[in-house]
Design a protein that fits this description.
Elements lengths: L2 H20 L3 H23 L2 H18 L9 H19 L35 H9 L3 H12 L4 H8 L3 H28 L2
Helix pairs in contact: 1-2, 2-3, 2-4, 3-4, 5-8, 6-8, 7-8
Length: 200
């Protein structure tokens, strides 16, 4: 069987599973869970940087799916629809917990924070390969509001207008928080490199 046929067969079976799950078929729902749980969990983990919270939010996302699967109309890919639902579940939880989401006033740069070079110019401090684990730790150390915007834009590929809609902020605020997240990430990586260089 060719790869194209396999993916077509999988797609057909996923469509069938969705229809059966809409009718209340528990086995079909369980199959959908197994098909998508890893991707939903990794999204939750990237957004929260906490394995226990990611596990809980993955369960919550699938509970939401169970409740709302009847509203899926197939206008977008099922995985995209589920992904957006998972993002919303995580953001709702972050808001409920009252984790600091950086207000618009705090996103205005002071002179000390402003980049000292032209944006878009090569950054020698970030040139070369960066250890993935080091980068992952730095992303986890970002404040939750910055991390959410950074993950949605730079990792998941959402546009600023989509992020603004998902998070409930302005497009300008999304751009500003992403800029601040990147600056903070550079700072964290620079500190991490300096500490690594000091070790004998």
């Amino acid at each position: 069987m060719t790869d194209a046929r396999k993916s077509q067969a999988q797609k057909i079976s996923e469509v069938e599973l969705i229809e059966r799950a809409k009718q209340g078929d528990a086995e079909a729902f369980e199959a959908l869970y197994h098909l998508h749980k890893r991707r939903v969990y990794s999204l939750c983990l990237r957004m929260t940087a906490n394995t226990a919270a990611a596990e809980d939010l993955t369960q919550e996302a699938f509970l939401q799916l169970f409740r709302k699967i009847g509203t899926f109309r197939g206008e977008s890919a099922f995985s995209t629809w589920l992904h957006r639902m998972a993002v919303n579940v995580v953001l709702m939880q972050l808001r409920k917990k009252g984790l600091p989401v950086v207000p618009l006033e705090d996103t205005i740069e002071t002179e000390e924070e402003a980049p000292r070079k032209e944006l878009g110019a090569p950054d020698p401090s970030l040139a070369g390969s960066i250890d993935r684990l080091q980068l992952q730790r730095a992303v986890e150390d970002l404040p939750p509001g910055y991390r959410s915007i950074f993950v949605l834009h730079d990792v998941e590929g959402y546009e600023h207008n989509e992020i603004a809609e998902i998070v409930g902020c302005s497009v300008g605020n999304s751009k500003s928080q992403l800029h601040k997240a990147r600056l903070k990430l550079r700072e964290l990586l620079k500190t991490s490199r300096a500490e690594k260089a000091r070790k004998p």
